[in-house]
Amino acid sequence: MKIFLLRHGETTGDLEGRYGGDYDDSLSNNGIIQSHNLAKRLKDYKISTLFVSPKNRAVETALILKKNMPLSLVSVSELRERNQYGVMTGMKKSEAKIKFEEEVEELEANNPYHHVSGSEDYFVFAERVTNSFNKIIQEEFKKKTKVIAFLTHGGPITVIFRELLGYEISGIKDCALFELDYDGESFEIISAQDIYKIESNFA
């Protein structure tokens, strides 16, 4: 079974230099263009179902894909981004450095295992993402589905690579596309070009 992991496009929060995570911002004009370009990259694949984070930026990207190809959209709450920034969510980073200096230091020193006030614990986040992802994969494999896709965020994609595939990745591009293959027992990474760095966790 072919699996695509997709990230949403650029957001208004990106342009404004805000802490994202649980912040429910929307696509920027460039993000809309990126989403249309992503649709072009996917047009030759017969994706049956797109499992989507409920965050605005993911939904907006998914709706653009749906306009360009016949697929079903399924909202999956567990695929939402981590509430990584807690009390700083939605704040401009420049303002947070002044108002929450200690929290910013904690974030930068211990990411992703930090304990920023009001944030979601990393291990709780990782469990909800991987459990949901694995459940969907198993269900679709039993149905003999040929191609499915997940449209989510940088955090969940990073967790899937770290916890399930055994790789550390960083620098995920807007509207990134990752291609995996699943044979019922294990995953194979077919394409992971839309990142700046990937390292194996295997000894």
Short description:
The chain has 203 residues and is α/β, with parallel strands linked by helices.
Structural account:
The protein is an alpha/beta fold. It has a single domain, classed as Phosphoglycerate mutase-like (Rossmann fold, 3-Layer(aba) Sandwich). Helix content is 40%, strand content 19%. The chain contains 7 helices and 8 strands, in the order βααβαβαααβαββββ. The longest helix is centred in the middle third of the chain and has 21 residues. The two termini are 28 Å apart.
Average residue pLDDT: 96
**Within the CATH hierarchy, at the fold level, what is the topology?**
Rossmann fold
Helix content: 40-55%
- Spell out the CATH superfamily: Phosphoglycerate mutase-like
Give, in order, the helices and strands.
EHHEHEHHHEHEEEE
Global morphology: globular
Strand content: 15-25%
> How many strand elements?
8
Q: For the CA atoms, what is the radius of gyration?
A: 17 Å
Count of folded domains: 1
Distance between the termini: 28 Å
What can be said about the biggest beta sheet? 6 strands, mixed
CATH architecture: 3-Layer(aba) Sandwich
The SS-based structural class is alpha/beta
Strand order of the largest sheet: 3-2-4-1-6-7
* Unreliable residue stretches: none
Q: Output the CATH class name.
A: Alpha Beta
| Individual helix count | 7
